[in-house]
Every structure is written in structure tokens, then in C-alpha cells.
Amino acid sequence: MQPDRPSSPASPSPAAVAPAASAASKANAPAAVCTDSTIEVANGQEVAVRMYGRKKAGQASPVVVHFHGGAFTSGDLDNGCTVATLLQEAGAVVVSVAYPLTPFPQPVETGYDVLKWVHRNRTKLGGQGALVYLAGEEAGGNLAAAVAVVTRDQSHPPLAGQILLSPMLDPCVGTASLREATGNAMGCKWTEGWRNFLRCPRDAEHPYAVPAGAHRLAGLPPTLIMVGDTDPMHDEALAYAARLESAGLQVTRHVFSKAPQWPDALLQAGQHECPCAAGAIEQIRLFFEATRSPVPS
Question: How far is the first Cα of the chain from the last one, in angstroms, to the nearest whole number?
Fold first, then answer.
């Protein structure tokens, strides 16, 4: 995967396998509308997804491609339930991606293929005029940001915005907030995660692997970044927000003062009421409202 050189990627044929309702998710949170499906994205490649929300009659809903966390080494669709539910409660239809837990670039390529499928099916998913967003928490936040860079370089599909919650963006794993959170611990899951994700030192310089280190940020969509004040990802998330602002981009940042369990509270399997849930839903809803102007199709 090469940055900044538009190409003509193969067009995946949309073919969704009949969705089966997730009994476990229904048991944990009866109010959630949640189905598991498999979609065909490219050359017969199938990707498992979990869909939240339904198209509303007579109105367009935001459609969000969502990536769960897990430090690049663990996590699945169950771990994405908390954030996907926040997005749904803010008014979105959510397609949560079971991306491969393999080294770069496969997770990013899978995410981009799913994004293209969602864009082709956006009217079916969210209604006429539905806008498409990216979102992710922790390692999933890095993938969402990476797919946004790929999308800019390919000039397709158009994005209305990206939503990053406690994004894991810095492979140096040396910020003050992360050191304070890990203390004197001998091991660090985020260090191991970056070792698992990056195949070699040069990958750390690739803008699709580490989008926060990209030399060129112009052209990225509006961004919402949310972190906790004691969040290990606090410093790297706000540093990325500052770089986006310096590039003249629209950025909304919000630091929650009572989110002592972020990002781990965002990654619990099943649907749980995470700290600051109401505030996060409100921030996401406001972001949707601020970015709902039509984008080129």
C-alpha cells in the first residue's frame, strides 16, 4: 500500500449474507438493534461485521464504519459493542468491522474495502442522502485515522468525518500520560501491540500505519477526538488534534474530567455503560449536526 498515489482499486461487489441476530448482544442490552453479517468486499474476500441501528423512514442517518480496540493484539466485535452502541444512540447506523489481527497493512486494507462497500450501500443502510463516517477506539482509532488518510489519497469515497476515542497513535509509547498510567509496570500492552502491528521500523514512518506521523494532513475530513483527563492516550490524541488544527482542518476535541477507566472501559466485551456515556453520546450527536452538510458523492 503506497501513500499519495491514487490508483483504481478493484470494485468489490456488494453481497451481504443474510444477517443473524446476535443473541448475546440482545441479552446484554435489549434496546440495541444489532445483527451479525458477512459482507463480500473484494475478489471474493468476506469480512464479518456487526450492524447497529436501522434506516429511519423519511430521514437520513449517519452511517459509521467502526473499528474496535484491543492494542492490535486482541479484541473482536464483542469488544466493540460499547462504542458502537454510543454511536447508535447518537443517531447513527453502525457497521462494526472484524478486521484481521495481523500486521500492517492488512487491517487497514480490510478497513478501506469495508468503507467502499458501505459507501456503495449507504442509501440502503442510512437512507437517501446518508453521510459516511469513520470511528474507532484505542487501536481502532488508529485504524480509523489510517483509513481516512487512504481515502484522501484515493479521492474516494467521500467522508463526512472521523470520530476517535482514546486513539492509540504513537508507536514510541513514551508520552507523559502513558508513562503515568503504566507506572513501573514491566510490560506494556501498547508496546507489545505496536510490535505486533508494525513489521519493521520503516513501517513506523508509513502514513497508513501511523497516520499521526503523516507529513501531509491537508484534505482529511472533520475530526472529533475524545479522551479522558487521566487517559493513557491523552497526550498523543491531543497532539494529533493540534497537528490537524495546524493543517487548517476542522477539529473538535473533548477531554472528560471523570473518565478514569478510559480506554479500557470502552473495550469491555458486550454492551456496558462506560464512564461519560451520556457526555460522549452528546458530543457525537453535536458532531453529526456540525458535519451534516452534503459531501460530494
Answer: 24
Nearest-5° Cα angle at 167, 177 to 110: 150
Write the pLDDT tens digit of every residue in 146-178. 999 999 999 999 999 999 999 999 999 999 999
Q: What are phi and psi of 222, to 5 degrees?
A: -55, 145
* Inter-helix orientation angle 81-89/277-290, to 10°: 50
The full length of the chain comes to 297
pTM reported for the whole predicted model: 0.89
d(CA 232, CA 167): 10
Residue with C-alpha cell 461519560? 276
